[in-house]
Amino acid sequence: MPELPEVELISRSLNTLLRGRQIVSAKLLRQRLAPHTAPPVFARRLRDRQVNVVTRRGKHILFDLNGGLTLIVHLRMSGRFSILPDERENPKFTHAVFNLADGGRLVFDDQRHFGFMRLVDTQALAETNELKKLAPEPFSDEFSIDHFRTVLRGSGRRIKEVLLDQTKVTGVGNIYASEALYVAAVYPGIRANKLTGPKAARLHESIRVVLREAIDFGAKLPVDPENLEGNYFSSGAEPTWTVYDRENQPCRACATPIARLKQAGRSTYYCRKCQRR
Hints:
The protein is an alpha+beta fold. The protein has helices spanning 4-18, 39-46, 145-153, 159-164, 174-183, 197-219, and strands at residues 22-28, 49-57, 60-65, 69-74, 79-84, 94-100, 105-110, 116-121, 258-263, 266-271. Helix content is 26%, strand content 23%.
């Protein structure tokens, strides 16, 4: 599932490619993609809307449209956007199509059918169920060390599980949680409320560092409008992970084999020496 860096890069690309362009018509091909809106209503509300800006909140992509309407999109496991010329056929699992006034169309396809869209009034955006419980953005002033320590003190769950909770830390998923814990030298199984002050400070900083490094890496990659999701970390162009998906490979710092454990049904990768209990 895309995490904050991937969603940030995709939203930036969409903003560059779509800002100021007009949607002349839209078609919802799979009702469950936008469960709160019937296909005829979806088409009517999006007709002749101009894209003001495309941004991100957590792992959600936000299309701000003229007339006070916002389209919220979550890619989930396999959702993908592409901007196709008129002569190209739609992908096999196309679930929504947005035809553009100046030619071409924005297409959303999703092989696993987990993607989500919702149309909301922009003035009520912050109060939607999808956004209102999200924690502060990791790069924002609200995500301060004091805020982070308060979050940790209030939870007896294991630290890796807390990092994955979007109401505690926004945008971090399985990959970057493992990476941040390694950079901070924190054992992934420790209880959040048992983390010492210095380790909490290191982890707070490492979350920002690993997310920023991933964004900076992806920002250097070329953008293919016909395969936006594929631009980032899915075609062999990936950052050099320190621990993620490196089970039994040597730690880059101490050469100890990287270990893997299961937490909440997900794999966690860590170094037994660098991240001692």
